[in-house]
Amino acid sequence: MKEPERTTILLARHGECRGNIEGLFRGRVDFPLNERGLRQAAELGTALRPFRPEAVVTSPLLRAKSTAQAIAAACSIQVEEDDGFNNTCLGIWEGRPKTEIAELYPEQWKMWLENPEELSVEGAESMDEVMRRSMAALDRAVAKYRGGTFAAVTHRTVIKPLLAGCLGIASPYFWKVHMDTASYSILVHDDLHGYSLFSLNRTDHLSGFTTEWV
């Protein structure tokens, strides 16, 4: 029996930026990588080279794009932008300290900690909206690189709903998966099984990373 044609996705989170270490809600604020983030991006590129990806698709935000460019340089491939991998729009929370949000919006902060899938913030996307547009972006890339391997660089609040959508994880799912800065996970896709998770949150290639639990 012939095995189904498999596509391998190297799903990476961007390297560290100021918003990570200062405890800010990032959203669409365009933070560049900091010094450690640049080092992480280079280490990530080296780690992904043995997989021989054909391309790297990225969120358009600078912290993701710079990470993707480091992967591209290490693997001698092209960078493609897809707004479907852009970070979650967080509306009036963007760029603000989490401590401030917890103080000013205690009920919504509680929802963020317990069930962000149901969170509603003025001007922000819902997790369902993020899931739909990121899955559409992933499907586009899988169709383009069918049977091959590609990398995708995006953000924590995109990877979580994206994985939930790919794997059929019911809500509340957001806090059931974890990924650190400049980590990568491996998904495999074929027409028989759809998406399968091969590996989650690999960080052994990093000399240092930021871990966030809220």
UniProtKB/TrEMBL annotation:
Substrate binds at residues 13-20, 63, 98. CDD domains: HP_PGM_like. GO terms for molecular function: phosphatase activity. SUPFAM superfamilies: Phosphoglycerate mutase-like. This is Putative phosphoglycerate mutase. It comes from Aminivibrio pyruvatiphilus.
